[in-house]
Specification:
Layout: H1 2-15, H2 28-47, H3 51-64, E1 68-69, E2 81-86, E3 90-95, E4 105-111, E5 116-127, E6 130-138, E7 151-158, E8 164-169, E9 179-180, H4 189-192, E10 207-210, E11 215-217, E12 222-224, H5 227-239, E13 249-255, E14 260-262, E15 268-271, H6 274-288, E16 297-303, H7 320-331, H8 336-341, E17 344-347, E18 351-352, E19 374-377, E20 381-382, H9 393-405, E21 410-412, E22 422-423, H10 427-431, E23 436-441, E24 443-444, E25 452-455, H11 456-472
Parallel strand pairs: 1-2, 4-16, 4-17, 17-23, 18-24, 19-21
Antiparallel strand pairs: 2-3, 3-16, 5-6, 5-13, 6-10, 7-8, 7-13, 9-10, 11-12, 14-15, 15-25, 19-23, 20-22
Amino acid sequence: MANKNTQIKELEKALLYDKKSTFKTATADEIAAAESFCEDYKAFLDGGKTERAVTAQVITRAEGAGFTAYAPDKKYTAGDKIYVNNRGKAVTLAVIGSEPLDNGVSIIASHIDSPRIDLKANPLFEDGGMAFFKTHYYGGLKKYQWPAVPLALHGVVVKADGSVVQVCIGEDDSDPVFTVTDLLPHLSDAQYKRPSKELIKGEELNILVGSKPYVIDDSNEKEQGSVKLAIMKLLHDKYGIVERDFASAELSAVPAAKARDVGFDRSLVGGYGQDDRVCAYTSMAALLDMQGIPNKTAVCVLADKEEVGSYGNTGLGSDYLAHFLEDLAAAQGVNVRRMYEKSKCLSADVCAALDPTFPDVMEKNNTAFMNHGIVLAKYFGSRGKSGTNDASAEFVGEVARLFNDCGIVWQTGELGKVDAGGGGTVAMFVSRMNIDTVDAGVPVLSMHSPLELTAKSDVHMAYRGFTAFYERF
C-alpha cells in the first residue's frame, strides 16, 4: 500500500499542475531579500504618484546607474546605456547588447499612469462660503471610494509667459491636504437608492480647497472679498499663477497617504498606484541592476495613458517606441522588420488576485493567488477575448521554460470569469509590431482603489523573473 501511495504522489507531481506558494520553496535569505527589496519599492511609490513624477524619478535613478540621454545621430555600441524621455510623461531605457539588432531585442513594457482625479480646465468655484475644484476622473476608478480621503495635488501649470510651475501639495507632513466631501448617513436615503456606479456621481467629485474669504483690514473697516479670490491670491503669491492659467495646467488629485506594510506579518505592501507601478519598478530595477552586457539589446518601456486606452503621443497606441527601435536599427544598418519578428516582449501589467471576500467573479482554476509568484497570462480581454493580445502557445512555452529553468515561481491568471469582465494591457500595441508578446505581472488586491495591495514575495519574484528575461532572451 505504501508503495502504491508513493507511486500516486510521484505521478501527481509529474502530471498535475500544482499552483504553489512562494513560501513553499523560499529560503530565509530569499524572504529577507524580498523584504529589503520592497523598502525601496515603497519609497518609489511615494515619490511617483503621477506619470510625470515617475518619469523624473526613473531618469534620476538611470543617470545614477550610468545611463545617458539618447542622441539619434550617435552610433551606440555594446554595453551603452541610454534613455528616451517622452515629454516628461513616459520613459524608455535600453542597454545595447552584444548581438546585432537583427537578432531581435528583449522588451519589458509597463505603464506608469494610474486612476486619479484630474482638475478641469476651469476648476475653481465658490458655493456655500467654500471654494472647490471641479474635476474629471481619469481611468477606471470606483467613484465612491474617493470622497472623505486625504488628497494631495500634483502636476504642472504652464503660465501665460510659457514658464512652467511644478506643484506638489499634500505630501509633506506640514502641508495641507484636500478632500472630496460626502453626505452624512443620516441624510443619505435618496443617495442609497442610486445604482452603485452613481453612489457618487462624476460631477460630485468636487475637491474642497478652502473656506476663508479674502479680507482687507485697514484698521478703520474691513472689506471682505470672496473665498475664491482668497484662494487665487494664495496661489498667485506662491506660484505666480492666475485663474486663466488653469487652462494650460495638468493638475491631479491623488491619495496623500504613504505606502505602508500591511498585516501583522508585514507580508503585504499597501499603497496607491501599484497598478502598474509595481511592474514599472521591478522591470526598471532589473535593467538598472544588470551586470555586464546582455546578449540582446534590453529595453524597458514605461508608458503613459494605458488606463485610458493608451491614446495620445505618450501612450503606446502612438509610434514613439517603434520610432526609437527603428532609429537604433537604422544606425546598425539592420532591417527593422527582421528585428521586430525576432524580438520578444513581456507586457508587464498586474493581474487581479483571488479575493476570498468576493470569490464569485473568479473562476478559481484560472485565477491568480497572492504569494504564488509572477502571473503569466496568455490573454486578458473580456467576453470573447475582446480587445486582447492572445499570446502564441510557442511563446508562452518559451517563457514558462525560462521561469522554470531559473527557479522563478509563476502561476497563470486572468481577469475574472469569461462573462464577468476583463481588461486590457499594452500587449496589443507591441504585438502589432510583429513582436511575440505575453502578459506577465504581479497579482493585486483592491485594484484601482486608493489603497492597492501586493505581496512582497510576488513583487520580488517579478523582479527575479524580469531579470531572467533580460539575461536569457
